[in-house]
Amino acid sequence: MPLSSRLARTPLSVLDLAPIKEGRTIAQTFQETLDLAQRAEAWGYKRYWLAEHHNLASVACSATSVLIGYVAAGTSTIRVGSGGIMLPNHAPLVIAEQFGTLESLYPGRIDLGLGRAPGTDFPTMRALRRDLRNGDNFPELLDELRELLATPKPNQVVRALPGAGLNIPIWLLGSSGFSAQLAGQLGLPFAFAGHFMPENTLPALEIYRRSFQPSEVLDRPYAMVGVPVLAADTDAEAEHLSTTEYINVLRLIRNKLAPLSPPVDSVEGLANAFEQAAIESKRAAAIVGSRETVQRKLEVFLEETQADELIITSNPYEHAARLRSYEIVAEIAKEAAKEAEPDHLVAAK
Asked: At what angle do helices 177-186 and 138-149 cross, to 10 degrees?
């Protein structure tokens, strides 16, 4: 498949961490999340996912199910879901009931993406979890959740009401090979955190596809890959806007997270050699640039990963710049789709 044709046929989705920004309130963060979701829906994005994190000064998506409901209520067609719920932080029955409620309110639009990491630091994990096996029991928790969401069996004592029998799509999320192999063995769709762990992207996708077993859910593998994209009208503008994320990653390395700060003229000298190498590793998959640069790099990324879907995260400081980034990517996809149309269909329009 030609590169432009692959880009034309690959669905695009949004991963939102509800970033908190310096000088802004959390209420404003949520308003910006809904605004982006509404515009993403209009621009043709397929899904809008929110990720569970806790005790992080830079993100406001800790009550993930509540925020999903807020976004779903303010939109009408885009799928809304979790990217993801960190299942070991919760009783499976609670998640089944929460997502059963969401699916009942917004039928056919809810996705349940599941991860096994804590989504936080160790002290906060202790506050969240009464079982501290670090997700080693994830397969058992997943089995329990899937059973609760399935059609109830005769004499089943505990049922998720609402939730049971609603056929809510379940995805497994991961940044290593563990969830990739489990998703493959269970025949479930798999979403890889390429934006967070780029060096593991290709190995994890290979594990998923190699281990895939057809199921009642899927007859072939379906892999969605996270990729950070910051598009702007020029390469120079995009690079300038990306300094916000550079500083955010540096703070993460130093374990000193804070709200996102405005872009700076230069990041030279902010990090030492070790930190600079770590930042470059974390941002290895980042696609930053003008429309032409982003299109070229997206095409290469799709060719390398053979992803069935891309889920894009973009976190510049200014909300307008964030909107513009997602709009440019949507325009790129639409132009690729137009170019891929047969000549007789183009002529008929």
From this structure: 40
Residue 254's Cα: distance from chain center in Å? 24
| Interior angle at CA 191, CA 115 and CA 339, nearest 5 | 160
- Whole-number pLDDT of residue 1: 46
Residue 253: both structure tokens together: 């390395």
Q: Tell me the backbone φ, ψ of residue 229, rounded to 5 degrees.
A: -130, 130
Q: Count other Cβ atoms within 10 Å, centred on residue 123.
A: 9
Cα–Cα separations (whole angstroms), residue 111 to 10, 46, 127: 18, 11, 27
- pTM of this prediction exceeds 0.90: yes
Backbone φ and ψ for 267, nearest 5 degrees, come out as -105, 5
Q: Residue 172 pairs with which residues in a beta bridge?
A: 114, 190
Residue spans of the chain under pLDDT 50: 1, 343-349
- In a 13 Å sphere around the CA of 274, the CA atoms on its Cβ side amount to 2
Three-state SS string over the chain comes to CCHHHHHHHCCEEEEECCECECCCCHHHHHHHHHHHHHHHHHHCCCEEEECCCCCCCCECCCCHHHHHHHHHHCCCCCEEEEEEEEHHHCCHHHHHHHHHHHHHHCCCCEEEEEECCCCCCHHHHHHHCCCCCCCCCHHHHHHHHHHHHCCCCCCCCCCCCCCCCCCCCEEEEECCHHHHHHHHHHCCCEEECCCCCHHHHHHHHHHHHHHCCCCCCCCCCCEEEEEEEEECCCHHHHHHHCHHHHHHHHHHHCCCCCCECCCCCCCCCCCCHHHHHHHHHHCCCCEEECHHHHHHHHHHHHHHHCCCEEEEECCCCCHHHHHHHHHHHHHHHHHHHHHHCCHHHHHHC
Cα 56 to Cα 17, 31, 84, 135: the distances in Å are 11, 19, 16, 20
Burial 45-62 (b: 16+ CB within 10 A, else e): bbbbbbbbbbebebbbbb
All structural domains of the chain, each given as residue ranges with its CATH number in brackets, are 3-348 (3.20.20.30)
